[in-house]
Amino acid sequence: MCAAFPEFRLGTVLATSFTGTLSERHGDAVERIPTPGRLVDWLVVSGLAVDSCTEAQLGLARELRESIHAVATAAAAREALPASAVQVVNDRSTQGRAAAVLTPEGQRLWRLGSAARRKDTLGMEDTLGVEDALAVIAADAIDIVAGERDGRLALCASPTCRAAFFDTSRSRTRKWCDMNTCGNRQKKARFHANEGRAAGPVE
Ligand SMILES: [Zn+2]
């Protein structure tokens, strides 16, 4: 069943991994969280496990995703941040109830509000976990746009992608959102171009 869905592209930065769930925005866009269940899967592998997700919550998640994308793109281009997108990011950030907790091994985990509530009140509030998870993602986006973390926001050099990504390389000269996909494709295109025109047009 899972094989029917596009795979995730997971990066090391939560907010831009999340915006990467829609890829090739300027080409044949690939939606990697097409169903509520796939959003649950993505949250689980991203350290924000929730039990369930509704269509409405998936809608909130996609709205946040596109808002982060818009804000990060503007920030990377040194342009004014779009006010409506900033509002969405702020709303999601302030409306969650996640808490960072430290493990005995010194690792940070996120405890979503519903996980605590569920012990007392089984039922109704159970599905609020998605909002809590989105708050963590929104706060991560705020961190990187506001320059609170070491790195540089940049836009992928692939013309069909143009994803905003967070470059933490030492030289800050990364060109592609992902070496295995966009970077590789670019390399192949250059290789074919160098092979000579006799081969005919290249896709
Ligand atoms: Zn890219």
UniProtKB/TrEMBL annotation:
<dbReference type="InterPro" id="IPR023286">
    <property type="entry name" value="ABATE_dom_sf"/>
</dbReference>
<dbReference type="InterPro" id="IPR010852">
    <property type="entry name" value="ABATE"/>
</dbReference>
<feature type="domain" description="Zinc finger CGNR">
    <location>
        <begin position="152"/>
        <end position="193"/>
    </location>
</feature>
<dbReference type="Pfam" id="PF11706">
    <property type="entry name" value="zf-CGNR"/>
</dbReference>
<protein>
    <recommendedName>
        <fullName>Zinc finger CGNR domain-containing protein</fullName>
    </recommendedName>
</protein>
<dbReference type="Pfam" id="PF07336">
    <property type="entry name" value="ABATE"/>
</dbReference>
<dbReference type="InterPro" id="IPR021005">
    <property type="entry name" value="Znf_CGNR"/>
</dbReference>
